[in-house]
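Late entry, evening session. Most of the bench is empty. Finally got around to the prediction I had been postponing all week. Sequence below, unchanged from the version circulated by S.P.
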Amino acid sequence: MSTRPTKEPVAVPPHIQTRLEAAGLRRTLATRAVLGLFLAQPQGGLTHAQVQNALTTRGLDVNRVTLYRLLDRLATCGVLQRRADDQARTWHFSLAPLNAAARGADQGALPQFECDACHQQFALPGASDSLRALTRDLQRAMDRLGHRTQGVEVAVHGTCASCVETAA
């Protein structure tokens, strides 16, 4: 990793620092820079290439394999969410909701709406209790079959209001 002059270092919020420490991850320059990108646009979904381009623009050159590993580790420890874009055959990463780790696996995941045009993600906090119960039931059914589930994600895909308005 080589660096050119960068802007001031990113402060890591305490709730994210807690997740990093629990996973044994250090606050390296690359980690802080990547977190800074996602903290600056919490609703955005960025691909690996977009993250790498943004880091390069900000004066930080991170090896692409190192960046893949970092994004994967941040997703594994619950700092980022990773969603597949089957059409583009790529992953989109976004900042995980603050309350995701606090809810725990047994409480069910909040559903997400993802715009297929701009890839912004929106939590749907008004999800009914029956949907949360369904996610818990799915996890328990998988557990009974001997599988270890880490969570259930419910995603609704479509076009967000901003993109609909822009297209009209």
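Two things to note before I forget:
Residues 1-6, 100-108 have pLDDT under 50 and may be disordered.
Strands lie at 2-3, 60-61, 80-85, 90-95, 112-115, 121-123, 155-158.
Will write this up properly tomorrow.
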